[in-house]
Amino acid sequence: MDLRLLLIASLSVVLGGSWAQQEGSICTKASAQSCGECIQVAETCGWCSDENFLTVGQSKSARCDDLESLKKRKCAANKIENPRGSIAVNKDKPVTNRKDVAEKLKPEDITQIQPQKLTLTLRSGEPQTFQLKFKRAEDYPIDLYYLMDLSFSMRDDLENVKNLGTDLMEEMRKITSDFRIGFGSFVEKTVMPYISTTPARLLNPCTGNENCTSPFSYKNVLKLTEDGDEFNKLVSQQQISGNLDSPEGGFDAIMQVAVCEKDIGWRNVTRLLVFSTDAGFHFAGDGKLGGIVLPNDGRCHLENNMYTMSHYYDYPSIAHLVQKLSDHNIQTIFAVTEEFQPVYKELKNLIPKSAVGTLSSNSSNVIKLILDAYNSLSSEVILENSKLPEGVSITYQSICKNGVESSGDNGRKCSNISIGDEVFFKISIESQKCPSHGKSEIIKIKPLGFTEEVEVVLNFICDCQCAAEGQPKSKKCSGGNGTFECGACKCNEGRIGLSCECSKDEVRTEDLDANCRKDNGTDICSNSGDCVCGICECKKRENPAEVYSGKYCECDNFNCDRSNNKLCGGHGRCECRKCICDANYTGSACDCSLDTSTCLAKNGQICNGRGTCDCGICKCTNPKFQGPTCETCPTCPGVCTEHKDCVQCRAFDAGPKKETCEQECSYFNLIKVSDRDKLPQPTDQSYPLTHCKERDANDCWFYYTYSNLSVKDNTPSCPAGPDIIPIVAGVVAGIVLIGLALLLIWKLLMIIHDRREFAKFEKEKMNAKWDTGENPIYKSAVTTVVNPKYEGK
């Protein structure tokens, strides 16, 4: 193993020891008096049920320790009580695969989550992890309830909704063959100041010639049905109503739709609630304006399909609404106009499994809005759990499509799930303590918006198995003053001591204290313990790794000599204030190593042959040498220079030591080789080797290698004398060439200069301007006479 691996291994041991010490501190610090108390401290704690386990001076709580410490303290493996939790799957029906089923299935026969029931046995501090599978089923039934605001501002929307039944039914048939639709409407509470309570306005709340129906809070117009024509027919008969303020009483209507399952006709299938409005909403507290102070009770109050208690109960709060929608597995789609988008988007963030769509001014896009919202909701699965028992926690980790993993809050959900996709959730449940009643608990985990759920039964390990074999009124417990269980006495009320031998009233008597003084001294339990029933029970220190022991608590494991601020130098253990050293270490603080490997020099000798190895450190005997292995000599010449003269005299019979060679240079072995290339190479040797190159008096180079084993040398390489003729000829030729080069350069410069002057002359000549006019008084000196008789013959 190389040094790096050794360091890693050493680090692992140190870290492991620190961890065990830290965990051990939890177990021993708890001062558990029974096995049941011990296993509640942490999952790493165990109880030694060996009757003879405790040493003199140790209390009953010393039986409780981390598992590794118990083994080191010689507790047999079959005597260590360490019960573990477990998981049992009680119902594991596979998720439905529609390809394997030809006939149409009933909703209750479709399975989308697996398994359906588990039993977990929990020990405090030990999490139990199981996996859930979710598969979005194909052709899963859907119930959709359309809840519409029928205040006066929605009059044009009502016309477009009248044909919604058959059109929506046709579109939803493409998603599922089992689809039902229902319709309800709402306006406002029928009290001032939400509506006008004058008799005329109660009959017709609209102004002008508008014919409106009387105001109402919520009306269930049509329970869920498969008949789209019936939906169109009943919706066509609806009339607009009116109110005074802008926010509407939609929350009252949502609450009744959620809790009145029989009146609405909800099945245990996908439940969708479409909430359509162009206004805001009232919520808890707003009812005080109308003198309504009773909070909403969250119950169904429908009579003849009308909400009859709107004047009696306040609007529900958002939290109350969220709870009821979740309890009844209803997914909400808010179809609202552009103006109120910000308000309902904030509301969506508070209601899980809800969506918001932008409704056109006349609701003409409502079908597309519903389809888009449904696809968004159904493509996401979010797990939730019922209320957890006290001391129980749960964590989620999701493994979604394409193996994407998430944890924390995102571990509860997966998005972009298509029909037939499978996703998985790893769920860990941990108990921090045993419930006071000690009974089983049941929690339920379900995907939001779905009726299916997983039932998880929680059983708690509150005591050790050996406790069931306890012996009440055992003779081992001071004649029947306790129950002997798990190797120790569990004392009856009012009794104390390892064997329940004392009454609480007898603890501080002088006679008992005398048994706790060593050598009849004055110190009780060496001032390091308490005298309980005449027996010293040693005190516990803040650091649980530090322990008092002995009959009189006279020993400890932390007051030994230290080295490098480590107890026993980190190479031994402290027993009764004396270091017990590990192998290869000695000294009062185990700070002297007997290992000489740290003293080995590069040549394989201990301290380079110039010192002694004392406790793993070289002490150099030659004052010229220093360093960790006595290899450094700041005042010494180099190896090559130091041995140059001796190599010369031994190899070539030359040099300044030629006359005294035998006396001064016989300290090494010399091996001569014929050629420089035959000298040893560093890669060929397993010992340090130095290559040297030196010059002698004749200006010749000679090469040799030096090691602690021998010196190898070859024939010197002398430089040849200079050849005079070539040198002289070269100098002369150089001078001639330089002269010719200078003449050529001068000639070239003169040619360039002449050409420039000629070009300058030509340019001036071209630019000259001569006067071409004639002198008016000028007469030519030539006179021409023509003979008239001359005919050119």
From TrEMBL:
Residues making up the signal peptide according to the UniProt record: 1-20
Swiss-Prot/TrEMBL GO biological process terms: cell adhesion mediated by integrin; cell migration; cell-cell adhesion; integrin-mediated signaling pathway; muscle organ development
Residues in PSI domain copies: 26-76
Pfam families: EGF_2 (PF07974), EGF_integrin (PF23105), I-EGF_1 (PF18372), Integrin_b_cyt (PF08725), Integrin_B_tail (PF07965), Integrin_beta (PF00362), PSI_integrin (PF17205)
Compartment(s) where it occurs, according to its Swiss-Prot or TrEMBL record: Cell membrane; Cell projection, Invadopodium membrane; Cell projection, Lamellipodium; Cell projection, Ruffle membrane
Keywords recorded for this protein, A-Z: Calcium, Cell adhesion, Cell junction, Cell membrane, Cell projection, Disulfide bond, EGF-like domain, Glycoprotein, Integrin, Magnesium, Membrane, Metal-binding, Myogenesis, Phosphoprotein, Receptor, Repeat, Signal, Transmembrane, Transmembrane helix
Name used for this protein in its record: Integrin beta
Native organism: Lates calcarifer (Barramundi)
This protein's encoding gene: ITGB1
